[in-house]
From TrEMBL:
Pfam families tied to this protein: DUF3712 (PF12505)
Gene Ontology cellular component terms for the protein in this record: membrane
Top-level lineage group: Eukaryota
Protein name: Uncharacterized protein
Residues that span the membrane, as ranges: 66-94
Record's keyword terms, sorted: Membrane, Transmembrane, Transmembrane helix
InterPro entries: DUF3712 (IPR022185), Tag1 (IPR046368)
Origin species: Globisporangium ultimum (strain ATCC 200006 / CBS 805.95 / DAOM BR144)
Length: 386
């Protein structure tokens, strides 16, 4: 018995205190470690593994997926930004520069056309004047231009590749291209207007594909209205008969060669249409017909010297008109008219109908001064027809 606080208290002598570093404790810890190693060795490989996650908006992603999501978001954002910039800046910039290109037609010459009623291709040379003031240089691809008259398409021409320089530019470009007539009726209306009117307009429509600043843009609207000067039926300036040669004259017919200065004020030249076969009138009286003697000349732009071989029927009802003509020449008051109102006016099918409205006036007021007589037709022979 042990005395505690002066009293005798029983003490359990079976309890023995062991220090933490005793061999018994170390043995117990060793058993625990071995148990943990055994658990790791026999752990189920299919058991879920819990990894650290990061928040991406309202989702929690693993580190690898989070990085991929961030990178993808950046790429998508850049793509959307580029699309916005393209439609908000690049496309308007291309169209703005296209709108700043002004063009006008200097002239168009028909230089070649096959004979035949069904021919729809005309070989042309045209001169177009360009004016523009661009902030960036650009190049446009070749394109097909649709031509319209009174809002109705009548044909197409090919436009070449263009190189547009920066700054203020003014220059002329000569283009050789075939005019493909798609609507013969509309083309005939246009041709009649060119022959009879002083001024008219046509429209040119196309879509351009341009390249600038390393970028390309197609479908650019390029519509222009082109002003044209017409022939006005050769009214102003008037045609001038330079010389009339009386090749032969009899009671049945007269053969005359007329040299005349003709001025085509139009911006359209008809060099490639061959010889014109025109009907000849004295005032309103039918006399015969006249054939152009220089087929390759055609009807060019500007002033030209035309030679016509005139055949006059002096028989029957035509004799009265011939007598009026002879009296008119003697008095110095002659007015010839050459018209396209016959079916043989030209071999170009596309122009047969339009040229019917052609009415060329040839005044003559010089009496006998510009008339050359020959052995086959003297003055006395001519007077004998009266």
């Amino acid at each position: 018995m042990t005395q505690v606080n002066g009293a005798n208290s029983p003490v359990n002598t079976d309890y023995v205190h062991h220090d933490a570093s005793t061999p018994q404790v170390e043995k117990a810890l060793a058993v625990t470690d071995a148990h943990d190693e055994t658990d790791k060795e026999f752990k189920d490989p299919l058991a879920p593994t819990y990894l650290k996650t990061k928040k991406f908006f309202c989702w929690r992603l693993t580190k690898r997926r989070w990085i991929a999501a961030v990178a993808g978001s950046v790429i998508v954002s850049l793509g959307v930004l580029l699309i916005i910039l393209w439609f908000a800046v690049a496309v308007p910039l291309f169209q703005h520069n296209a709108d700043k290109v002004h063009l006008s037609l200097n002239y168009m010459d028909i230089v070649h056309v096959e004979k035949g009623a069904d021919v729809r291709t005309l070989g042309t040379n045209m001169s177009v004047r360009f004016e523009h003031h661009l902030s960036i240089g650009a190049r446009s691809d070749p394109t097909t231009v649709t031509l319209l008259y009174e809002d109705k398409p009548f044909g197409t021409v090919e436009f070449p590749e263009l190189h547009l320089k920066t700054g203020k530019q003014e220059y002329d470009l000569v283009i050789t291209s075939d005019l493909i007539v798609s609507d013969a009726d509309v083309f005939a209306q246009l041709s009649e207007a060119i022959i009879t009117q002083k001024n008219l307009t046509i429209d040119a429509h196309t879509k351009l594909k341009a390249h600038a600043l390393g970028l390309s843009k197609g479908g650019l609207k390029f519509d222009r209205t082109l002003a044209l000067t017409g022939m006005n039926n050769y009214v102003d300036p008037p045609n001038v008969i330079e010389r009339m040669t009386m090749n032969s004259c009899s009671s049945s017919a007269l053969d005359i060669t007329i040299n005349a200065t003709v001025t085509n004020t139009a911006q359209l030249g008809l060099q490639g249409i061959g010889a014109l076969n025109l009907t000849l009138y004295f005032s309103e009286d039918y006399l015969g017909y006249g054939v152009a003697m220089v087929p390759e000349l055609g009807v060019p732009r500007g002033q030209s010297t035309q030679m016509f071989h005139i055949f006059i029927d002096a028989t029957g009802s035509h004799l009265a008109a011939v007598q009026k003509m002879v009296k008119g020449i003697a008095s110095g008051a002659v007015q010839f008219f050459m018209r396209g109102d016959n079916p043989y006016v030209t071999d170009v099918g596309l122009l047969q109908e339009p040229i019917k409205v052609l009415n060329m006036s040839f005044p003559y007021a010089d009496q006998l001064d510009r008339i050359t007589f020959t052995s086959e037709c003297s003055l006395s022979t001519l007077v004998g027809l009266l």
